[in-house]
Amino acid sequence: MGEMTTEGSQLSAGIDLSQFYQVFFEEAGENLDRMEQLLLELDIEAADDEELNAIFRCAHSIKGGAATFGFADVAELTHQMETLLDKLRRHELSPTPAMVDVLLASGDALRAQLARHQTGQGDEVDTGDLLFNIRAMVAGEAAAAPLPTQATRTSATSVEEPPQEAAGPAEAAAVEQAPAASQPAPGGERTLELEVGPLADPSQADNLQELFKEIVGLGTIEPLDGGQAHNGIRRFRVVTTSSESELLDLFTFHVSREQVKFKPAPESAPADGARPAPPSAADPGYGFFENAPGAPQPQAAAAPAASAKPAARSAPKAESKQGGALDSTTIRVSVEKVDQLINLVGELVITQAMLAQNSRQLDPVLHQQLLAGLTDLDRNTRDLQEAVMSIRMIPMSTVFSRFPRMLRDLAGKLGKKVELITHGEATELDKGLIEKITDPLTHLVRNACDHGIEPPEERLAKGKPEHGTITLSASHQGGSIVIEVRDDGRGLSREKLLKKARERGLHAPDTLTDPEVWGLIFEPGFSTAEVVTDVSGRGVGMDVVKKNITALNGTVEIDSAEGYGMRVSVRLPLTLAIMDGMSVGVGDECYILPLSSVVESFQVEPGMIKTVGTSGRVVEVRSEYMPVIELEQVFQVPRFDFERASSIMVVVEAEGGRVALLVDELLGQQQVVVKNLEANYRKVPDVSGATILGDGRVALILDVGSLVRRSRH
Amino acid sequence: MHSILAVDDSASMRQMVSFTLKSAGYNVVEAIDGQDAFEKAASRSFDLVLTDQNMPRMDGITLVKRLRETPQFKSTPILILTTESSDQMKQAGRAAGATGWLVKPFDPNKLLEVIQKVIR
Question: Where is the signal peptide (chain B) (predicted)?
């Protein structure tokens, strides 16, 4: 068995195991995620049995697969984790925060190991310290310094395995998990004969076999005399590179120093330090219980060698090769292919819009069938488009799920107590957007923990609960996605920000409004932390966060109350490739408004528009005054028919403000394919993109948020 | 054709066992845990049950016990696939009425070899 695990691939029986790798990797990934989640939720003071069992099963399942598929390093680490978890679920040990830490770190290491096996790239993962710490914990010690041989004396190891009947199988157990990672180091390898005893209970010596099983690179041990004691003395053959005194130090865990004797191996030892033949020939790796229901006839069990050629049965494998193929319910597709699909659908939408427009002049009676077909085309196109777009949509939970672990580590490092609450994980966002928003969000969450949440004693002194709370939420608001990061920490200090701004030579009069003061933290190099910690406040700052979000056509807003906390809202516009728009006409031009931000439209009656001050114009709608923006002036639309004037108002809403846009006419609602203007032309103020109309003309898509902001000045 | 009930909570392990057995010409029914297996065993009989030990909802040993209580599984060979070969485990397996055990990681050849010993 030992050999099997050391071979990277087992091609026994002509079965290529690699066909199952992908499923194994996915499964192991799921198990790791689940284990991490369970560990993070684990209540250390009152650990639930079912939770501990579930964590155990995660490690156990990964181990089983890894061992079978020949990923020895993964199998070894999970084996150690499993040993610890087993003791926890049997209540032989109680969970400690240090154990959770080690198990989480082991999960990370496993991820790295699996990634290495999956991609065939990357460096070997060093798990020495982890293995050592887990072993120490299993032995009932706290995590110690990573010095493997400095183990202290404790004999928490329970003595099981009565030796009588177990001679063969116990030995198999020792070899079964023979760690493949052990360095062969042929240079210093020697074979020794080891005598232990006299022992009152000869099974004590079995623990030495366990040691070799557990410690990587120690070598191999093999019982002599069939594992039986003579006068209380057990004999073993040991192949090792370790010195005798090192071995003695390890053995004193279980037996006293005086009871151990080393001798050079007798001449029967394998020459050239070759590994002793693993007893796999003797140990079949399976067994039957005598007289058990369904057990084979005795002679069949006694002569396993007789049936050493069972492969004949497995010959007709080709026949069902496909039958056993993976029944995957998902496929992996490259992003380019999806993007291409979206582009093509975009073109289809334009064509459809063009047909719809051209068909308006047709006589509905004469072309009834054609028009019915076009209506169907309209519906089908819309459905197709939605379906295609949804391929790229991913729930926010994929981003949010990384924060519990991150905050835990961070809070631990900073000595803070933080609870994370998330809302709206199911809110879906375009994949491209998710990828780009992850870094800025991570930064915001980190800031909230580092600068926002106070240390526990400070919170208690302020009369706040010891645990700080960080709330992450995502929601659709109109055509935008709003992601909020909120904390109940110390909040921003107006005075400090103003002082700091002046120190940095920025113009910061006391008359600045709160939002303007909060906006100062977006200035380059402006850190709110008084002390630069190793977590944040160095390198990337809020200015980069803002820049990244602005690059996505998004906005960042800050709201803060000193002593009570702060909220950062990230609002991302619908940057998806297709949107519902309302087209409005001004002069000969056509502009598109995102339908989601349109509130209402109405005919302007004389006297509704009032002039305030010198230039500001407002309109009264149901006793509410709204700023008026004349698109004609904003975009300097050329006019030829001087008779005509804009007479229709469209009320649009964005960023918590409303403005009334003055236009000539409403042209209708339609789906438009959003083209990036910046990439194809250049950035135009108040415009978020462009589209191609059914008749081939280009129309600008207005940035409502920017128009609202314009009205505030 | 002999039919085998293969029980494992790990999808990759299940697929591999199932693939190995199907390649050798057996008819395989998969179950995702002891509970699932028990339910599948209620409606029909099998020539062999091959079960993992550690599983959610119902573990292998419990499954063996429950199966032995039903008449049509009184003498059906039941093998436990386990990662540990400790005596404790074996005692529990024997007490529950298992026919034998197989140590993971297993070799496909060995799996077939063992199965041929008990299926006739």
Answer: none
